[in-house]
Amino acid sequence: MTGDNTLITSHGINRRDFMKLCAALAATMGLS
Fold first, then answer.
1. How many CB atoms lie within 10 A of CB 8?
2. SS3 readout for 1-32
3. Cβ-proximal residues to 26 (8 Å cutoff; 6+ apart), any chain
4. Entry pTM
5. How far is the CA of 4 from the CAs of 28, 31, 32, in angstroms?
6. Distances (CA, A) of 31 to 6, 20, 27
7. How far is CA 25 from CA 8, 13, in A?
8. Rounded distance, CA 32 to CA 24, Å?
9. In angstroms, rounded to a whole number, what is the distance separating the alpha carbons of residues 20 and 3?
10. What is the pLDDT of residues 1-32, one digit of tens each?
């Protein structure tokens, strides 16, 4: 996953929100 850091910085997402997003994404992928 290259380029994620750039995406995070450009959107101003903080680390906590990013971790929540990752958890949600992982859960969604696990279910589907």
1. 15
2. CCCHHHHHHHHCCCHHHHHHHHHHHHHHHHHC
3. none
4. 0.48
5. 19, 23, 23
6. 28, 17, 6
7. 15, 15
8. 12
9. 19
10. 555 666 656 666 677 888 898 899 899 988 87
